[in-house]
Specification:
The chain is about 45% helix and about 10% strand. By secondary structure, it is α/β, with parallel strands linked by helices.
Amino acid sequence: MSANNKFIGTGVAIITPFKKDLSIDYNGLEKQIEYLIGNNINYLVVLGTTGESVTQSDYEKDELVKFIKDKVDNRVPLVLGVGGNDTNAVVNTIRRTDFEQIDAILSVAPFYNKPTQEGIYQHFKAISEASPVPVILYNVPGRTSSNLNAETTLRLAHEFDNIVAIKEASGDFSQVMYIIKDKPKDFTVISGEDALTLPLISVGVEGVISVVANALPKEFSKMISLSLDNKIAEAKEIHYQILEFIDTLFVEGNPAGVKAALKVLGIIEDHVRLPLVPVSENTYKKLEELIHKIKG
């Protein structure tokens, strides 16, 4: 399987379950891994925003990745989140990382510093040159306050063979379409917006890195598979069945919402680390109602 084909379909930005004392709940994590793989997801993304990587120590991250590698055991590809706003620190992290069983890195556009497009280009150039595995760019201006625009994305895609994809979470259809229009043939554009994935596939996006699929892997993966097979009418039925659930999941932030949903499903508890807090009782009850409706 070529590098780009590994990242077509449904990727899941996996959560990190915590116990009441906020240590990592490895039993819950194993249950979540089996739940996802058993329900037809295509690959996993580890140490993303949804995994609360920013509140984990280097030691915790290393142990978490080792555990996931062991439990996944090459059944699905693994993508490792490696990003930040200090280019040198990101490069040093890449150099010290054990990439056994890691199929790519997902690297977010540098946040807070608000670099120019040239600064963003140089940042990802340095990452590309340091990385021994393919690189997936991640554009999420709602979190970074720094948009990786179409021109810079295309420049990186054409100049660096190991930059193989972008997770696009700008919500800007025009920007996404310009990337698709002029991208290299083997460059994959991936949705980073669960609710927009179905319409984005209609213009050439080839899948998603999903939060929602943590809770509804079977339903979401089926919708993605149907839409990629151009069975739009069937995909739309699932899309509208789960749309309100998707919106409710993000009302009080991510991953508080999806952890609440996973608690309803009996897979993990909904503990999060500060500054995040669990969802309100009203949102929890709404998620519970929607899950029971979807699951019948």
